[in-house]
Design a protein that fits this description.
Number of domains: 3
Shape: globular
Strand content: 35-45%
CATH class of the largest domain: Mainly Beta
Largest sheet: 7 strands, mixed
CATH superfamily of the largest domain: Hnrnp arginine n-methyltransferase1
Oligomer: single chain
Distance between the termini: 66 Å
Number of strands: 27
Structural class: alpha+beta
Number of helices: 13
Helix content: 10-25%
């Protein structure tokens, strides 16, 4: 590790007027020069404070240290423990007095550079490399939420629930096997491998080698399940750890993952998928899935409005409850930045197809596997075969009254929080209709604030219904028929989305 840091940063030192240890009683080194040295001590990056009068005063671990300004020439540096200390102790630190403000600025710049480099280093483990300090996931996700999350997915029962979702598992299998050309002889990384089923699909499609990265205890089961397929297991390596912290011996030609949660973004695993892309994927590599779309449409459901309030509702509903054709928001996994997923703002605009009361916004998603041979969609749309994701509906605090042809506008604003989900802010409004139309303005507005992490699971299935003779099947629910153009993707998708959805609601 010392050599690795030394490649980028050389040991440096700064002269200080004085330092004062934060201990009891306070100890000071008066009237003698003090030198602060950045370096690697016992294999650990740190700051060593040395007095010409009394030798070493203290060494602080840079991985655990924080530096704060108290004034132009005064700062305080605190760490959880001293590198050289062998006993359990409370946090330790020193106040630093600089001779000039320029020296203070130089010290702070060096501190940030060394700390950033220290955070990027790792210690070798049997299955790869893990960071010695908190990674991105640990910084942004509450520890209790992460513990529950990995415990949940570490249980075979929940993996079984996903494996038995034949729409999910069957679509992934078809997307991989139908695009053997993308996998044959290629290196694949399975992000959040779970039971290892997608790794087995990739190996079956001819992958040169598959790295199955899984952070939960399911990694141990995955090893056993993969070992039970000896013809494939020699080309699969299970790596236990988070994609934010593990290191792999080679870059990948293709990433495969199932990062979708309720409303596509719940659980915030899309961020890990994007991080894996930036860390492991070769330029021009492929991602399965390639992009996702969140579909949203106003709905009318008197029974649901009476039944529930203040929670997003997860269930399967009859698509005839929709009041207008849906709009969609596209997330391109190959281009989106991690920060783009921290806050998602979606403007909404509809034209009502009937006179009714609007009770909220219905949402679902689909994802595209943009293979070289076949483009395959996985959809969770209402009216399609039900998946374990179902659909989700956001119920307004008060319904809106609309007439056929009346415009509905609004906004869906989603803000990520540290419990691996989103706070949702929904507003829908209707504009004046009839004789006063020329006056413009909004006459009705309703909103709600919901936590996507705490939905109400309403698992009653919609009743089967027969299409009228003049009613066309909903083409929206067969999105795999859409041909994706490499250029101007979003405009193409939005145009087809509007045309297809209109057929259902005419």
């Amino acid at each position: 590790m010392e050599a690795a840091i030394g490649k980028k940063l050389q040991p440096s030192e700064f002269q200080l007027s004085s330092i004062c240890q934060l201990s009891f009683p306070f100890s000071e080194v008066p009237n003698s020069p003090v030198v602060a040295r950045f370096g690697v001590y016992s294999g650990v990056p740190g700051i060593q404070f040395v007095s010409s009068a009394g030798g070493e005063v203290m060494t602080l671990d840079l991985r655990k240290a924080q530096l704060y300004k108290l004034g132009p020439v005064a700062s305080i540096c605190i760490a959880e423990d001293s590198v050289t200390s062998k006993e359990n102790s409370y946090s330790k630190g020193v106040t630093l007095q600089f001779r000039k403000e320029e020296e203070s600025k130089g010290f702070h710049s060096a501190f940030e550079a060394w700390k950033e480099e220290a955070s990027s280093q790792g210690q070798h483990l049997s299955n790869g490399v893990l960071s010695t300090s908190k990674n991105k996931f640990d910084h942004k996700i509450e520890a209790s939420s992460a513990k529950m999350y990995f415990h949940y997915y570490g249980q075979l029962l929940h993996q079984q629930n996903m494996l038995q979702d034949y729409v999910r598992t069957g679509t992934y299998y078809a997307a991989v096997i139908e695009n053997r050309a993308d996998f044959t002889g290629r290196v694949v990384v399975d992000v959040g491998a779970g039971s290892g089923i997608l790794s087995l699909f990739a190996a079956q499609a001819g992958a040169k080698h598959v790295y199955a990265v899984e952070a939960s205890e399911m990694a141990e089961y995955a090893r056993k399940l993969i070992a039970g397929n000896p013809s494939l297991s020699q080309r699969i390596t299970v790596v236990k750890g988070k994609v934010e912290e593990v290191e792999l011996p080679e870059k990948a030609d293709i990433l495969i993952s199932e990062p979708m949660g309720t409303l596509l973004v719940n659980e915030r695993m899309l961020e890990s998928y994007v991080i894996a892309r930036d860390r492991f994927l070769l330029p021009n590599g492929k991602m399965f899935p390639t992009l996702g779309r969140i579909h949203m449409a106003p709905f009318s459901d008197e029974f649901l409005f009476i039944e529930i309030a203040n929670k997003p509702v997860v269930d399967a509903f009859d698509p005839r409850l929709l009041v207008a054709p849906p709009v969609c928001h596209i997330i391109d996994f190959t281009k989106s930045k991690e920060e783009d997923l921290y806050e998602i703002n979606i403007p909404l605009k509809y034209t009502a197809t009937m006179g009714t009361r609007v009770h909220g916004l219905a949402c679902w998603f689909d994802v595209l596997f943009d293979g070289s041979t076949v483009q395959r969609w996985l959809t969770t749309a209402p009216g399609s075969p039900t998946t374990h994701w179902y659909q989700i509906r956001c119920v307004l605090s008060q319904p809106l009254y609309v007439m056929a042809g009346q415009e509905i506008t609004g906004n869906l604003h989603m803000v990520a929080h540290n419990a691996q989900s989103y706070t949702m802010y929904l507003t829908l409004s209707t504009k004046m209709w009839g004789p006063g139309l020329e006056q413009g303005g909004i006459i009705q507005s309703s909103s709600c604030k919901l936590d996507l992490k705490e939905p109400y699971y309403r698992m009653s299935q919609p009743q089967a219904y027969t299409l009228a003779q003049d009613q066309q099947p909903n083409q929206l629910l067969q999105p795999q028929d859409i041909q994706i153009q490499p250029q101007d993707l979003e405009d193409e998708l939005m145009m087809q989305q509007t045309q297809q959805a209109g057929n259902e609601l005419q």
